[in-house]
Fold this protein.
Amino acid sequence: MTESQTYFSLSREDKIDALEVAASKLGRPADLLEKDIWVVWVLNALFDSDLGEHLVFKGGTSLSKVYKAIDRFSEDVDLTYDIRQIIPDAYCLRGAFRGGDRYARHWYDLDRLQAVGIAARALEDKPLAQDVAKHKQHFFRETDRAGATINYADAVSGSLCLIPEGVALEALAQDYQKMQEAGLLQSDSIAFDDLIARLMVLQDRANNRAA
């Protein structure tokens, strides 16, 4: 492939060859590399369009592609207003994933945000956290184990829960391991027990700050 060629101009056979070479050099599965190519293409198409000025790029993909705060492949592309802490908190109250798998990525992201100093800055911005909780409450209502509506304001008022218990914690550990084995996380990503220990510190910091 010459410098003037792009992935999309290649034949099907050459695309496969290019992906296999990249997979060999990077140590990542070829299918995830291809998905990443399309993620970048979609983002370019969106932000080069007339809609671009009205979109806000959020979520794990922005943390990886723009801020370089995390090092994992994108599961999806978020173009909404979101906060990393709200998802683990809702999981603690529900005790189950809301469909699908690979939810452990949100706990991984939180740890990386803490490692690069972004979490500390976020904890200082209480008005933003309250706005996010209101947005989540309005547009993304969730229920707990008993079927009661989760009050996201509690998560930013000193009752944040990042660490589930019992069966929910076991399910999260299995999901995290599957992400590691699938190559979605770096091969040197930290052990699950270490991740939980570090997030427990973040949980305590957040709740002490909010109280």
